Fold these 2 entries.
Entry 1:
Amino acid sequence: MSKEGDNTIKCQCHDESGEIVPCYDNVSCNCYWINQKMRSFQEKRNNCSYTEFSSFKPILFTGTHSHFYRHVGFACSELCGCKGNCTNNALLLPNKRLFPIEVFRNNEILGFGVRTLSMIPAGTPVMEFTGEIVGDQLTPGAHWDNGDYAYQISYRDDEQLRNLIKKLNFKPEYEKLIVKLSQKKYYIDPKVQGNVGRMACHSCASNLEWVRVFQKSLSPAHVHLVMVSMVNITAGTPLTIDYGATYTKQRFDSNCMCGSFACLNGPDAATYSKAMTLKLSMCHKTLYDAQIKEWRQVIKPAPVESNNEANNENNLPEIVEITEKS
Ligand SMILES: [Zn+2]
Ligand SMILES: [Zn+2]
Ligand SMILES: [Zn+2]
């Protein structure tokens, strides 16, 4: 049904020269129009710009309150005139798999983890979390084994998404169906089919966060879960996600072993358990600065072929800092 007429969301934008098509900020692009409508889900904050879901700008969050419902984007796809090769496609970079990722295991108790082998700036959509879409048969108790890995993608609280669905030109029976489906619990379950995204370990001070990017339509089947870096991540750092207090309680019986500075089972738990996201970000920044300092000491730049010896001191590689807009 999603493939019939107006039930598919796509645009006609194209560029004969084969250049990247400027769908983003183009008010006559259907896909951008929906992407921009989703921006209204975000909390209005003074002096703070909204979170943007484009192909090349960093995804920087405006706040942490109901973050998962509020930060949602819509991307162009291969069905569009631009074929997704445009500025309105937050899935363009993650699909290119730009960052070399290594799977590792520290010890027998902890499972596998993944770490980056290159630097990842804050706000980068690093990779997609893929798997099978499963319905609410996956409730705690029934198949909680899979529940360990699965991530919920549709929620009763997605009221703003349902309001948007009702404003679009979907066929009445399709609209009714996706409104109904969006109220049910659907999960992305990577246990049988999936990618390395599932190997990102839990951390009480994680460096990645999940966001939803829709493509082609607005049912739970059209959701892509994208893992975005919240801080600058240096090479060699494990990629981590905060699975939440409920998960750590059930899974580790409150004996979390993430080893992060803010671990709820660590020596500084009392200090950090009530720490606000801002404070955690400041700690991440301090950590990052220390890592960069160490990196500068360890990694010596290759000698530059230049006759001007005095110039060599200034040849340290440039590191571009991303600053948060808030
Ligand atoms: Zn377009
Ligand atoms: Zn496009
Ligand atoms: Zn499009």
Entry 2:
Amino acid sequence: MAMEVAFLAPSVSQPAVAQHMGTAPGPQPSSGFGMKLAAGVCSAAAAVGLASSRKRSKTAARYTTQTILPSLAWIKTGVKASELQPTELKALTLAGNDVLIGKTEAGALFCVGNLCPHIGTPMSEGADVIGDVIVCPLHGSSFKVTTGELIDWCVSPPIIGPLTGLIVDKKNLLIFECRQGGFLGSGEVEVLVDTNAKKAYEAGYWKGLLDAQGKDDGTYY
Ligand code: FES
């Protein structure tokens, strides 16, 4: 069973907050018991005012927990292959997918996921390309850019890197098909991505959340 989710966003009026904080303009009591009494009445009235002025309204954002199927499409990157030097990398977000296009040392074009499968560090923040292998800048995990195959997992810095590697299952790097568009490959680099990837991720998130509360069909876990 899929369901629709909408946020409830509380909205509180500014005058009510000012009143509650004691910053509302108006006559102030002068001293002693009278002042305390007035302050008490004021405070109670402010609390009532705050509660009554708290409104709940629905935002336009809606999410679903239904299964979202992939929808693949070639997306232009705005980058020509001739603009990339060997070992150069360029990070892009295409239809919600974080990708990294680049060239191997031999000059072959490739496209991989930009987020390291270890803990999600962007490879674009200093990854090295050595031959046809990309090396994560944080803990040195390395992957073949043509297949995404894991070569080394969390090898640096000594002791700390391998320790961090123990807490996450080893994974390969995502890879994406890419090509040079235009006549005889003279145009922009294009990447084949799932244009539903973001929607599917959000649906999975809401399904997990609602299943944990017993409000969906319980198939997430
Ligand atoms: S984040 Fe890439 S190896 Fe740790």
